[in-house]
Write a structure and sequence with these properties.
globular, about 220 residues, single chain, 11 helices, mainly alpha, about 55% helix
Length: about 220
């Protein structure tokens, strides 16, 4: 995709939603970290449903550790892979207390050293908490990068590297929020809603889907 086309795409994203936000619910940086860890291979909606009660009683590493793995697992059992995730959340809570005095990890190396935290999760925290222009490549961004010929690659790392190069700097800090929401609600995996996409004229994907016929 040409530079001027990419610039126009993100200009439209910015015009439609100047300040995009992620849909995971949190009350502070720690709970956002937990929510992102829990969201692996799960929907934001399922995570938000489980964490509403959880974050009301455990919104710090100390409180989470006191809650314990068994009770945490019971509170998040509606989320996929909940047992492993409960183990990681308890472990990272302990690590935050022991390594950072209960505060947050403030750089990529420190974040990725925490249990259950990979590059994507670290990118979300660096962007949403610390305002760094990182791009977290999830399944939506990976699909869009390849489908739109925006940043093609066989791995999330390849797509991320290319996105960091091709997305205009002025939009880089908001890019992954726009692309996630676009992939979730319009450029969907099985059948994108091309007929209502504000980027349809810029997108090389074919064949474009037509507006569904009502009553059909």
């Amino acid at each position: 995709m040409k530079k001027d086309v990419i610039a126009e795409m993100f200009r439209r994203f910015a015009e439609i939603e100047p300040e995009p936000k992620g849909e995971l619910k949190s009350v502070n940086a720690f709970t956002l970290l937990v929510a992102v860890v829990l969201s692996a291979q799960a929907t934001d909606a399922s995570v938000n449903h489980a964490t509403r009660a959880l974050f009301a009683i455990a919104d710090t590493p100390e409180k989470m550790l006191a809650l314990g793995e068994a009770r945490l697992a019971d509170m998040i059992k509606t989320i996929g892979l909940y047992r492993g995730k409960a183990k990681n959340v308890i472990a990272l809570s302990r690590q935050l207390i022991e390594r950072h005095g209960g505060g947050g990890a403030h750089d990529r190396a420190a974040l990725e050293a925490l249990a259950g935290v990979g590059r994507k999760t670290a990118n979300v925290i660096l962007n949403s908490v610390f305002g760094e222009p990182t791009i977290a490549v999830d399944t939506h961004l990976f699909r869009l990068g390849n489908r739109l010929k925006l940043a093609t690659g066989k791995t999330p790392a390849e797509v991320e590297k290319k996105l960091m190069k091709c997305v205009p700097e002025i939009y880089r800090g908001r890019a992954h929020h726009w692309l996630i929401l676009h992939g979730r609600y319009i450029c969907k995996a099985r059948k994108p809603d091309c007929w209502r996409c504000p980027m349809a004229d810029l997108c090389p994907f074919k064949p474009k889907t037509a507006r569904p016929v009502q009553g059909a």
